[in-house]
Specification:
There is one protein chain. Strands 6-7-8-3-9-10 form a 6-stranded mixed sheet, with helices on both faces. By secondary structure, it is α/β, with parallel strands linked by helices. The protein has 10 helices and 10 strands. It folds into 2 domains: 175 residues, Rossmann fold (3-Layer(aba) Sandwich); 79 residues, no CATH class. Helix 3 runs parallel beside helix 6.
């Protein structure tokens, strides 16, 4: 499942840098002085035991949480705070640990929702679906159909997502994120709740998104087999602190990581 070794030659400069980020909720320290970077074109995994601060870190990156200390640099622009819509406009898309789909809408319409930031027609034209708005919608629909073909979900495009099995719902959510044409795609446990076959399918799609679209991917995942097969580099968090950072092989043999997963580090 691992990408070919020569794929690493496509990995470029730093796209996003996390520098000394700390985040607290009352007296609870979720993240404590964490620093790492994500390079353009790579698949970067963020792993750790439950409660390690992984999802909190993704929430900081896409602007949902604002850290008390530290800063994020994305595409050369440094900021301490950013709203989620600003992250989306800047090229960061996100899927969630718990599905965040419009369950009564079709798979196609859910993916189409990801094109909202790309639409430029004013409200009047969009309301009546006339003139420039109609032309624009045709172009956006074409892009959505390409994503549907890519994800191999042509047969369920008109089905309300609430009626779909879990694995296909996860695929639709990935499609909605891809519809934003992100430079950085954040995936929060994309394989959670899936069977072996569904995990293999999703793993292939993650690799293809990275290879064919050139999208940089940062993912949280508990399945260590998936992490070791997909990732170029892995950063490991435990109790809000970074305990390791390196290639999958380097991280796999790190004693601090082994202790954290065995529950003997604290």
């Amino acid at each position: 499942m691992r990408a070919p070794p020569d794929r690493r030659a496509a990995i470029g400069e730093v796209l996003l840098s996390v520098e000394g980020v700390s985040l607290s909720f009352g007296g609870v320290r979720a993240i404590n002085g964490v620093s790492f970077d994500i390079r353009k074109g790579e698949i970067r995994a963020i792993i750790g035991p439950n409660g390690a601060g992984k999802t909190s870190m993704l929430n900081v990156i896409n602007g949902f949480y604002h850290p008390q200390h530290g800063r994020i640099t994305f595409k050369g622009k440094t900021r301490a705070k950013m709203r989620p819509y600003e992250a989306a406009e800047g090229g960061i898309a996100r899927t969630f640990q718990n599905l965040a789909l419009f369950r009564g809408m079709s798979a196609l319409d859910n993916i189409m929702a990801g094109r909202s930031l790309k639409m430029n027609s004013n409200f009047f034209w969009q309301l009546f679906r006339y003139g420039p708005a109609m032309t624009e919608e045709v172009e956006h629909r074409k892009k959505v159909e390409e994503i549907i073909d890519f994800l191999k979900i042509q047969d369920i495009r008109r089905v309300p997502v609430g009626r779909l099995p879990y694995g296909l719902q996860k695929r639709v959510e990935l499609g909605r994120a891809l519809a934003m044409e992100p430079e950085l795609l954040l995936l929060d446990e994309p394989m959670a709740g899936m069977n072996i076959e569904e995990k293999e399918d999703m793993s292939r799609f993650v690799l293809d998104v990275n290879e064919y679209f050139g999208t940089t991917v940062a993912l949280i995942e508990h399945d260590m087999g998936v992490v070791m097969d997909l990732s170029d580099r892995v950063v490991v968090l435990d109790h809000g602190e970074k305990i390791a950072d390196g290639t999958p092989d380097e991280v796999k043999g790190n004693q601090a990581v082994i202790d954290a997963y065995l529950g003997v580090a604290h």
